[in-house]
């Protein structure tokens, strides 16, 4: 390379670096300005909402393994059929989900239903009814096989199968995903992105939605919950309905106070066979009514939250993104 060519190339490279740096600075300034304006106005969510609450309703009954499934019953040797455990899960689609759907109608709340494909195949009409009532159908794998034990090929095929199952039953394509006990693989987000998903919930590190880079493209995270999760507290810690009610209220009150100065959201988890029990459905309904009485509180489906997060330049971004 002669001296003139070297100077020209160097000049063009430097100019490109300056342009890229300026673009990044401009984007950073724009984001900071929007965040500052949001803080001044207190408008952290669409239509001036102060706090968003999102409810997950897991549709799993019927997909559990024939032997060794988690339940309140004492564990027995898997060489024996465990009839009571099967009946425990049957309650989810026979009573639990229908009861919760009626309750959600009473309080005017729409939720996200994380559907295991095998459960949908067993009760397609119930899956269809969930969507017809205005709720979101989200992916939760095709079976209860843990995603973390799958090869990338197995994982991809499982999600493909669940998409087809949900679309066949409900007429909608899932755009959100929840892995078995939140444990995906290093490839999960790339596979989800390839299949048209826009968000996942398998992250408990924040109390607001945020974006992570997947192949340098933003992918939304709508945080999930463990401490306001029925399976953890009712079955794992043997809480009473009153104890869970207190946890919901305390969680809400703290987040509502923080929401005066920053974007906050609250997540609640309700499994078909657990919160679908009479006393527990009543606890969730009472909480929703309490929350709705506070000014500026809205209940949103997780796909709505994810789309808002992707559209707002003020959404927190983790990891390394290229220039926008």
- Annotated CATH topology: TIM Barrel
CATH class, named Alpha Beta
SSE order in H/E notation? HEHEHHEHEHEEEHHEHEHE
Fourth-tier CATH superfamily name: Glycoside hydrolase/deacetylase
How is the biggest beta sheet arranged?
A: 5 strands, parallel
Low-confidence stretches: 3-7, 10-20
Integer count of domains: 1
Q: What's the average pLDDT?
A: 88
DSSP helical segment count:
10
What is the number of beta strands? 10
Straight-line distance between termini: 33 Å
| DSSP strand content | 5-15%
What is the annotated CATH architecture? Alpha-Beta Barrel
Q: How much helical structure, as a percent, in the residues?
A: 40-55%
SSE-based structural type: alpha/beta
Shape: globular
**What is the alpha-carbon Rg in Å?**
23 Å
Compile the SSE list and pairings.
Blueprint: H1 3-41, E1 51-59, H2 83-107, E2 112-115, H3 117-122, H4 124-132, E3 136-139, H5 152-170, E4 176-177, H6 188-194, E5 199-200, E6 210-214, E7 217-221, H7 230-236, H8 241-258, E8 265-271, H9 278-292, E9 297-299, H10 302-311, E10 316-317
Parallel strand pairs: 1-2, 1-8, 1-9, 2-3, 4-5, 5-7, 6-10
Antiparallel strand pairs: 6-7
Helix pairs in contact: 2-9, 4-5, 8-9
